[in-house]
Design brief:
By secondary structure, the protein is of the alpha/beta class. The protein contains twelve helices and eight strands. This is Serine aminopeptidase S33 domain-containing protein.
């Protein structure tokens, strides 16, 4: 009888762990993504997008193919040839290029070329899994190459990323060929560390074995190692001028992560802490200050 009880308990534990890992795996790399049109309307209703102005911009639809044969969709906005500068804007997790438009406007109004696009598995792009920048940095490299071909005369190429987009542009620093500067808004420094924080905050306990077991499934299914996603290591020895932006009230990706990356980078760096800003809301809180910080940073290095 005792052996039967033990066997039943073992079976229950195994079933529980299997279901828990399946749930967490789906939440982590197969999470539901938001509708681009709904995001666009939501951003406009908050005054973050000027719809009339955006409609006047001449936009070119672009599709590229990744090394693993996924179709990624983007929009290229041609700027003033006299300005001759380009920014690639990279969105965060579960959203799409629609949330990049609020950043695009501060550049298009100054005559810059702007490229916004949908990550793999987001918006109108293909893909089965999200890898938090592990594969997305190589996708970004293809977009940078596309810009070099589309506007070869561009005198300046920069990257701007929000949240996972920030982590992606920072990881891109390790393979950079053409980019002159990086703006990283509320990026995480270490994915594994962030997952431990989020599990404790979201579920009120820290269950490291669940993260470990899910990591094994992520490696088997999505083909990347969670512990390899460490933007702080990618930028530590990078010479690329980098502006780190983080809201002081960011509870999702803690503010200290942006501060840690700023401290870790050895040179060519600047930090802007947006007072009272929650996650990915620094531009929402004070757009004028945000724009000033961005262009003060760019002017400091490229006047």
């Amino acid at each position: 009888m005792k052996n039967l009880i033990i066997l039943i308990l073992v079976v229950v534990i195994v079933i529980f762990l299997y279901k828990a890992v399946t749930f967490y795996f789906n939440k982590l790399v197969k999470m539901k993504v938001k509708n681009s049109l709904e995001l666009y309307e939501s951003q406009a209703s908050k005054g973050l997008i000027d719809k009339k102005y955006y409609d006047t911009l001449e936009k070119e639809e672009v599709v590229i193919t990744t090394k693993d044969n996924l179709k990624l969709n983007g929009l290229f906005i041609k700027g003033d040839e006299k300005v001759n500068k380009t920014i690639i804007i990279v969105h965060g997790i579960t959203v799409s290029h629609s949330t990049s438009i609020k950043y695009a406007e501060i550049f298009t109004k100054k005559g810059w070329n702007v490229l916004i696009y949908d990550h793999r598995r987001h918006g109108d792009s293909d893909g089965d899994y999200t890898s938090y920048g592990y594969y997305e940095k190589f996708d970004l490299d293809l977009w940078v190459n596309w810009i070099k071909e589309r506007v070869p005369e561009s005198q300046l190429i920069g990257l701007h990323g929000e949240s996972m987009g920030a982590a992606t542009v920072l990881q891109y620093a390790s393979i950079n060929k053409y980019v002159d500067f990086i703006i990283a808004d509320c990026g995480y420094s270490d994915l594994y560390q962030l997952l431990k924080i989020r599990m404790k905050e979201d579920y009120h306990f820290l269950l490291t074995p669940l993260i470990h077991l899910t990591s094994i499934r992520v490696l088997r299914k999505a083909k990347f190692k969670i512990k390899k996603v460490k933007p702080i290591e990618d930028i530590r020895n990078s010479d690329i001028p980098t502006l780190f932006i983080h809201g002081t009230e960011d509870k999702y990706v803690p503010t200290f992560m942006g501060q840690d990356m700023y401290k870790a980078k050895k040179n060519n760096k600047k930090l802007y802490l947006a007072e009272k800003a929650a996650h990915a809301c620094s531009i929402d809180v004070d757009k004028v200050r945000y724009e000033k910080e961005v262009f003060d940073f760019i002017d400091e290095y490229f006047q």
